[in-house]
Amino acid sequence: MKNLFSASRGLAVIVFFAVFLLSGCGHSAEPKQEVKKPTLHDAAVKMVAEMSLEEKIGQMLLIGIDGPDIDTGAVAMLRDYHVGGVILFDRNMNNKYQVTGLNANLQRLNKEYNKLPLYLCVDQEGGMVARMEQDLTVAPAAARIASQGTPEDAERWAYQTAKEIESIGFNVNFAPVLDIGIPASRSYGNDVATVSKFTEAACRGYDKSGIIYSLKHFPGIGRSEVDPHTEQYRITASKETLLQEDAVPFKNIIGKFNNQDFMVMIGHLIYTSLDELPASVSPQVIKKLLRQELGFQGLVITDDMEMGALTSMYDFSEMGVAAVNAGVDILLVCHNYEHQKQVYQGVLEAVQTNKLAAADIDAAAVKIVENKMIKLLNAGQQQELLQSLQKEAQ
Predict the structure, then answer these.
(1) Which residues of 217-241 are buried (b: 16+ CB within 10 A; e: fewer)?
(2) Which of 138, 137, 62 is CA-nearest to residue 106?
(3) Which ranges constitute the DSSP H helices of the chain?
(4) Selection from 301, 325, 327, 305 nearest residue 316 by Cα
(5) Residue 86 β-bridge partners
(6) Are 177 and 187 in contact (CB under 8 A)?
(7) Nearest CA to 98 among 3, 15, 169?
(8) Residue 34: predicted pLDDT
(9) SS3 category, 301
(10) DSSP, res 280
């Protein structure tokens, strides 16, 4: 009996020590750290870190080209300046077949020099602001849709417009107009409620299509009595009035829609209650009002920087620097190759001489690259990027 007791006690001691050792010598085992799955934001940060300063600034430039073919100037802008996007006008567009080929060739050429696709853009609002009217189904003017139709009509026209221009190679439409009471029937109405209701419907149409769209022209140019293409104008409405009226349609879309799906285009007029600088170069308008107060997280793009409202006050070498400093991500220069180069060189030299923070360039480039990964790459391409990151993390 004594031997049996001793054997049992010995077995108990062995079991105790076995459990002790397996449990980590008396200490509870550390919980396994779960490996964070990489995101497209992580992929964008990595890609930007591997880009030169010249490439980053190039991604921030969106240009127009001269004619219906890719000329030597366009090649140089893609090859030497790494531009991030191209906008086409009637001067570039003969028919659907030619435009489809031009857009495809631009993407093909771009692939030789840049890692991500181009933004290929057009102003296809409908009404008086429409391209290639002889070949495309042009929507009625916004004012006509609102006065004779319903918000569902605005949604249907936006979707139809988006799918048609997408079929010929575009991935960005600079529409809809959110301004209240803008001339030429470009606005859905003269009151906040109507414009908000119809622009929300139009954005639903663009959302369903998958194309990138642009809200314009923040913070609203409907009060202007001049054409900003030719001259500057000072809007003297109080900030309270701007917030209760002009900015409401923008705030509505920013709050209800995924901010990755659209850009906000900034106008060039001066809003005296916000700043003495044009909106497109004003930190008060972009960083404070649009970003902080309205909470916009997506891409900010200027209206064409060759407009008289801006060129009457700034040289091309200065305006890009001022816009980036104000919080702009994409600089739109629609017509002249020399002007495009001056805007680019101005930003480059400002960074090199510490007049502009390199961190601001990085932040804009990351936003652009991430947006392109989300909106312009297919699911398979996105997965390849994430798998590559995952492998590097292991």
Answers:
(1) bbbbbbbbeeebeeebbebebebee
(2) 62
(3) 2-22, 40-49, 53-59, 72-79, 96-113, 142-148, 151-167, 192-209, 239-244, 248-256, 283, 308-311, 316-326, 337-352, 358-376, 379-393
(4) 305
(5) 63, 120
(6) yes
(7) 169
(8) 60
(9) strand
(10) G
Biggest alpha carbon–alpha carbon distance for the chain: 111
Whole-angstrom Cα distance, residue 62 to residue 58? 8
pTM: 0.90
Omega before 219 within 30 of 0, i.e. cis:
yes
Find where tokens 């997408």 sit.
166
For 299-355, how does the pLDDT look when each residue is reduced to its tens digit (9 = 90+)? 999 999 999 999 999 999 999 999 999 999 999 999 999 999 999 999 999 999 999
Q: Are the CB atoms for 82 and 55 separated by under 8 Å? A: yes
DSSP 323-392: HHHHT-SBEEE-S-HHHHHHHHHHHHHHHHTTSS-HHHHHHHHHHHHHHHHHHHS-HHHHHHHHHHHHHH
DSSP collapsed to 3 states, 82-109 = CCCEEECCHHHCCCHHHHHHHHHHHHHH
Residue 36 carries which DSSP code?
P
**293 secondary structure, DSSP code:** I
Question: For the chain, which ranges sit under pLDDT 70?
Answer: 1-35
Which amino acid is residue 99, in one-letter code?
Answer: V
Report the alpha-carbon distance of residue 337 to residue 105 in Å, rounded: 19
* Token output for 363: 């932040």
DSSP conformational letter for 233: -
What's the N-to-C CA distance of the chain in angstroms? 58
pLDDT at res. 8: 44
Of 47, 79, 51, nearest to 63 (Cα)?
A: 79
Ramachandran bin of 164, using left for φ above 0, alpha for ψ from -120 to 50, beta for the remaining angles: alpha
For residue 248, count other CB atoms closer than 10 A to its CB.
17
For residue range 201-245, what is the model confidence (pLDDT) as tens digits? 999 999 999 999 999 999 999 888 777 887 788 999 999 999 999
Q: Report which of 57, 76, 55, 54 is spatially closest to residue 65, judged by C-alpha positions.
A: 76
Burial 255-284 (b: 16+ CB within 10 A, else e): eebebebbbbbbbbbbbeebbebbbbbbeb
